[in-house]
Amino acid sequence: xxxxxxxxxxxxxASAQAEDIMFFADDHYKSLGRPAxxxxxxxxxxxxxxxxxxxxLANLGRPEELMLINQSGPAQDxxxxxxxxxxxxxxxxxxxxxxxxxxxxxxxxxxxxxxxxPGEKAMLDYNVSVxxxxxxxxxxxxxxxxxxxxxxxxxxxxxYPLYEAARDNLSVDVxxxxxxxxxxxxxxxxxxxxxxxxxxxxxxxxDGPEDLHNCSARLLAAPPFSASGPERALGDxxxxxxxxxxxxxxIDGDAKQQDYQMGCQICCQQRxxxxxxxxxLRPGRLDGWMLPALAALGLAGLxxxxxxxxxxxxxxxxxxxx
Length: 322
What we know:
The chain is α+β, with helices and mostly antiparallel strands.
């Protein structure tokens, strides 16, 4: 009796702890790991009325371990099963329904996605209706049902996956900016600084009659953006005044050229509020690698001019001596 496969199975079961394990009797490999879904709003600040809420659904799961169970059988089947076992962390046949709450009513049906691989994300779009005079934070629920590959077997080149159903209720926080808010964002601009990277500047206005003291701004970013650095100090905002907030920003390389809706949380001594902020990515913007390249070319040109000037000065000195 070959005790190696039995010992591997026992070790696998012990390492899995509370995770349910399924496997075929003739398994060659077994992988540990399962999908881990997380949701976040790409435009967390909404205005009253009809709109679209964009939600990023990400798979944070990953394959944790791949164990060899049995080496007997055709080599092609063994190699193919090893490859197919790595799909155990994929979220498959996803059905995601957004459930409204409080002043936010969801007016569109579920979104469906075929596959989200580990480390990948998908954008979900839902039509929403926000009640008038609504203001403040609301917590929405994204009801997600999907399948995961619990095990797979390969026989004579044919793949036989075994699926199991899973379900998650994910929370999504959304802020409704009421019309009576005295603070507003008049505009924003995206730029690239050679030494400081991507920057986002937003003009913040205090349109109310009240002076606001000791204010700061924090960017509520979501993929394809991520905010870096601390919150930005604005100081006091007297009634009718403007302040400029300068944020460090990172942009995913696969970001599409379009408008994105984000949020900006402003906290003062009197209160905190979140405001919608639009960021536009447009063609023609210099990519991050082009600016350093242009700078290097500029420095090379400057060095060439200095060398040429030094050469001319040396030649003039030799002429004077002669």
